[in-house]
Each structure stands twice: as structure tokens, then as C-alpha cells.
Amino acid sequence: MDALPEYPEHPELGLVATLQLVTRFASTRNPSLAAAAGQQLRSLSADARQPAAVRECARQLLGDWQTLAIASADRAPSC
Fold first, then answer.
1. H-assigned helices in the chain
2. For residue range 31-73, what is the model confidence (pLDDT) as tens digits?
3. Nearby residues of 69 by Cβ (< 8 Å), 6 or more positions away
């Protein structure tokens, strides 16, 4: 499994990165972006420096994003 991203000095950047990935995925439907958003959500949900509400929200959204990543990969055009 790929290493999860870390933001030792600025943990809020994890939330910023997640929002960027989700927004880009919405406009491109790129399966790699869906997978990256899922990784970010996993990281946020486990980061004790994040507020409890952020961790819980990330935990709840993670399953949805894993499903989107799989569905997007299934629909991706083959090269």
C-alpha cells in the first residue's frame, strides 16, 4: 500500500488537498483522482490533530470514495 500523505507542520493541508482532489475529480472523473481523494480521506480520518468532526466526516466519506474509485476505474477508457 502507498504511504499516506503527512503534513507535520500544517495538518490543515490534508483537508485542503482533499478538497482539491474532490473538486478536480468532479470535473474530470479521473479514477486516479478518486483513489487519491480516498487516500487523503483515510489519512484525515486517522490524524488525531484534526478536529473530531473532520475525522468523523472523513471516515464516513471514505467508503463512498472507495466505491467511486472502483466505479471510475471500471469506466476508464483502455489505452
1. 12-28, 31-46, 52-75
2. 889 889 999 999 999 999 999 999 999 999 998 888 877 777 7
3. 31, 34, 35, 37, 38
Q: What is the DSSP code (8-state) at residue 9?
A: S
Q: How many whole angstroms separate alpha carbon 44 and alpha carbon 59?
A: 8
Residue 8, CA distances (Å) to 12, 44, 47, 53 in order? 10, 13, 11, 20
Pairwise CA distance, residues 36 & 40, whole Å: 6
- Cα separation, 37 vs 65, whole angstroms: 7
Asked if 34 contacts 72 with a C-beta cutoff of 8 angstroms, the reply is: yes
pTM above 0.85, yes or no: no
What cell numbers appear for 75 in the block? 469506466
Q: Which of 17, 2, 8 is nearest to 54 (CA)?
A: 17
